[in-house]
Design brief:
With 217 residues, this protein is α+β, with helices and mostly antiparallel strands. It contains three helices and ten strands, in the order βαβββββαββββα. Strands 1-2-6-10-9-8-7 form a seven-stranded mixed β-sheet. β7 and β8 form a beta hairpin. 37% of the residues are buried.
C-alpha cells in the first residue's frame, strides 16, 4: 500500500468553537483533489458540544456554558482552556491503493494519543465500543483523558476530531454525563503529575498524528 502524504499542521490558537466549526465545514465544502489534508490545533473557551446522536439530558446543568449541536458522531463532551483539540480535515481516499475506512482511522488517531501519553510516562488504553483513550493503570485507572468524535462524509472527507486534556479546570465535566456515561471520571495530564506546557504537548501530538496518518496499514 502506498504512503499517504502527511497532513499539514495548522496552529489556530485560541478560537471560539462556533468559528472553528464553521471554518472546517467551509474547508470541507470547498476542497477538491488538490486541497491538502490538514490537522488544526485549537484551544476553545468553555463549550459543551453534542454529537448527532446525543441525548440533551446528558447535560445535567450547563451553568451558563454554551451548548452547541454539531454534526459529528458521539455524545456530549466539554471543551475548555488547557485542552488540546485537534481537528482532522482529511480525504480518506487520497494517495492510497485503497480507501482508509473509519475503523482504521479511529485506531490510528487513538494510537497517536496513546503514543503522546507514553512520551510523558502515562499509559493509555482503548475500550471496546467507547471511542477515546482511558488511563490503563494507577489510581485513575479507567478515567477518560481523551475524547474522539468525527464526521465522515460520503465522499470520504472528514472533519471534527479529538480532544486531549492537558491542564484544565475539570469541574465542567461533572455537570454532564461525559460521552453519555453517568459517573465517568475524566482526568487531565496535570492531575497525573505532568506539568508540561500545552504547546509542548500539542507538538508531540501533532507529530504522532502526522506519523500515524501517513503510515501504510
Amino acid at each position: 500500500m502506498t504512503l499517504c502524504m502527511p497532513p499539514e499542521i495548522v496552529q489556530r490558537g485560541q478560537e471560539p468553537y462556533a468559528a472553528t466549526f464553521a471554518a472546517m465545514r467551509a474547508y470541507t465544502d470547498e476542497r477538491d483533489a488538490a486541497t491538502p489534508d490538514q490537522v488544526w490545533l485549537v484551544e476553545h473557551p468553555p463549550v459543551y458540544t453534542l454529537g448527532l446522536g446525543a441525548d440533551p439530558a446528558h447535560v445535567l446543568n450547563a451553568h451558563d456554558i454554551p451548548v452547541v449541536q454539531t454534526d459529528r458522531g458521539g455524545e456530549v463532551t466539554y471543551h475548555g482552556p488547557g485542552q488540546i483539540v485537534a481537528y482532522l480535515l482529511l480525504d480518506l481516499r487520497r494517495n492510497r491503493d485503497g480507501r482508509m475506512y473509519a475503523r482504521e482511522l479511529v485506531h490510528r488517531i487513538e494510537q497517536a494519543v496513546i503514543n503522546t501519553l507514553a512520551a510523558y510516562n502515562l499509559a493509555g488504553e482503548r475500550k471496546a465500543g467507547a471511542p477515546g483513550i482511558y488511563l490503563a493503570d494507577g489510581p485513575f485507572k479507567g478515567a477518560k483523558i481523551a475524547a474522539l468524535g468525527l464526521k465522515i462524509r460520503g465522499n470520504g472527507c472528514t472533519y471534527h476530531g479529538l480532544s486531549l486534556n492537558v491542564a484544565m479546570d475539570l469541574t465542567p465535566f461533572s455537570w454532564i454525563n461525559p460521552c453519555g456515561y453517568e459517573g465517568l471520571v475524566t482526568v487531565d495530564m496535570r492531575s497525573l503529575g505532568v506539568h508540561a506546557a500545552l504547546e509542548k504537548v500539542q507538538a508531540v501530538l501533532a507529530a504522532n498524528l502526522r506519523d500515524g496518518l501517513a503510515r501504510p496499514a
